Amino acid sequence: QVHLVESGGGLVQAGGSLRLSCAASGRTFSSVIMGWFRQAPGKEREFVAGRRGFSIDYADSVKGRFTISRDDAKSTVTLQMDSLKPEDTAVYYCAAKLAVLGSRYSYWGQGTQVTVSS
Questions:
Q1: What is 59-78 written as a DSSP string?
Q2: Which strands sit side by side in the sheet containing 76-81, from one edge to the other?
Q3: Fewer CB atoms inside 10 A, N or C side of the chain?
Q4: Phi/psi at 30 (nearest 5 deg)?
Q5: Each residue of 16-37: pLDDT tens digit?
Q6: Which is it for strands 112-117 and 10-13: parallel, antiparallel or unpaired?
Q7: For 96-117, what is the mean pLDDT?
């Protein structure tokens, strides 16, 4: 089991920045792959950022604005969000999957609301 707790959401004006954090526990952090997803009202949950294969990948809509990073010593993953747009408004979820071939994101945090005003 992997337990995930997000923090850092809130209300920000367009063009502003927010930093989301996710603390993981329950398994050796180096044995899990972390990612961020989001779900806007009336839309399906979508991938935002995370490792795919041997590289870090981002949704096209956030490339150049969002940065994912992890601190293995603290068992945390962060999502730095800059130049925020109203369309970035969503509930953001931290997710984890085991670092084995074929695994899927199966552990989820409770979500944190990000609202970007125009």
A1: -TTTTTTEEEEEETTTTEEE
A2: 3-7, 18-25, 76-81, 66-71
A3: N
A4: -70, -10
A5: 999 999 999 988 888 899 999 9
A6: parallel
A7: 93
